[in-house]
Amino acid sequence: MWFPPFGAGLRDSALIVSEYKSLYAKDHSSVDSLEDLVHEIKPSVLIGCSNVGGAFTPSILRAMASFHQRPLVFALSTPSECAECDADKALRHTNGCCLFGSGAPDVTKNLDEGDAQRSTGFTLMSHAYVSPGVTLGVLCTRMHHVADDIFIIAAQTIADMVTEEDLKQGRIYPPLENSRQVSLAIATAISQYAYDKGRANTYPEPEDKMAYILDKQYDYNYHNALPAIYSWPSHATKALNTSGLQASHLFDKTFKGKSSYYS
User: Fold this and answer.
1) HEC string of the chain?
2) Which domain does 131 fall in, by range?
3) Considering 100, 125, 150, which residue would you say is the last residue of a domain?
4) Over the stretch 208-261, which tens digit does the pLDDT of each residue have?
């Protein structure tokens, strides 16, 4: 695992100022650009979170395609103008072989219709997959501290929910329309982990954690709170022909001669 900007992933770099960064440092001579580094180490995965728009140049993308049959290119910076590349460039410069992930929702905005149909390897890598499930799991267990291991559980759960059919279509995440099920699975896994590690503060411990969390999960398909509406009998809604009637006659006809009740 390498961490540009250029030199930041090298052991002799002055940019390494924290001990945790040194764990990932490499013994390697300094390089001048990301493109030089890509050509030297031939990575199979390229992850962009630099907010440097266009950092994944056509030359870099072509190189990734030459190194690997299905390279992974993740342009995670948002908004879209800050993305390292877009879906159109990723598809065009890798000849459609890359698995592309974007942090911006409009991953295929520049694709023509033919390319969009071929772009099955594109995935929206949104926090919408992670945040709802983590929040739900933490609230239901009342954990006091949310450490990194909770997010690792979320990542593992998402990976486990990718089906064979998803993989065949080039997806690396489940479909976004399944996000509700993904959130439930993440919250359940976090709940089990929290109780196993003694970090949960909701007692008694639910026997069926998924059922417990499902009961707490917001459901927008609630019952109608308005009063029931009944249909009127057809004879009661039949229009009355009032042509040629005087007001007094109309009153008598309407109330069938019982005008004395209203005198």
Assistant:
1) CCCCCCCCCECCCCCCCCHHHHCCCECCCCCCCHHHHHHHHCCCEEEECCCCCCCCCHHHHHHHHHHCCCCEEEECCCCHHHCCCCHHHHHHHCCCCCEEEECCCCCCCCCCHHHHHHCCCEEECCHHHCHHHHHHHHHHHCCCCCCHHHHHHHHHHHHHCCCHHHHHCCCCCCCHHHHHHHHHHHHHHHHHHHHHCCCCCCCCCCCCHHHHHHHHCCCCCCCCCCCCCCCCCHHHHCCCCCCCCCHHHHHHHHCCCCHHHHC
2) 126-217
3) 125
4) 999 999 999 988 887 778 887 777 777 777 776 766 666 666 566 555 555 444
